């Protein structure tokens, strides 16, 4: 049976503040309301993406990292599959460090690595000494030694596969195997996305007063 997935992703950038002006047809002196008008209410929700713990990309469910790269760190609320070549944390590993770890978490997977749904020759590289956290290691081995028994940078491969096998997750540092996982519950994805939906619903009640532009300065289509 084909697995049906729900995918909700939040691509988050720098902090931003949102002040919501809801309804109102006119501005009147304090305490004065014209007949038939709706008084204006202003709500402040602060940073709409607050709670992301510094992750640059977050998904509520399963995620596919298809090609190229992410500038920062990634948090996956479900299982992860990936394409032929993908780089995580090209410029930054972010600010989230799991308890007891020596380096920030560049890639957090609440579920498992989904090898069958990924590229069979896929290599996902975690750069800048970032750590990996995986909630479910079934189907995976965490290797800290190569085929000669030498201590090397950590890799995550399919169960029983060799250090240089593909597909694999390839770290740029020697993260202890026990630190990789299994470890879950570092982020509460369900609560986080519930808050995102609440904030989105509130923002949707605002009048459309901002024109979104693309990289060339042209208005985005509806």
From TrEMBL:
The keyword Signal applies. Keywords: Signal. Residues 49-217 form the Choice-of-anchor A domain. Residues 1-35 form the signal peptide. This is Choice-of-anchor A family protein. It comes from Streptomyces himalayensis subsp. himalayensis.
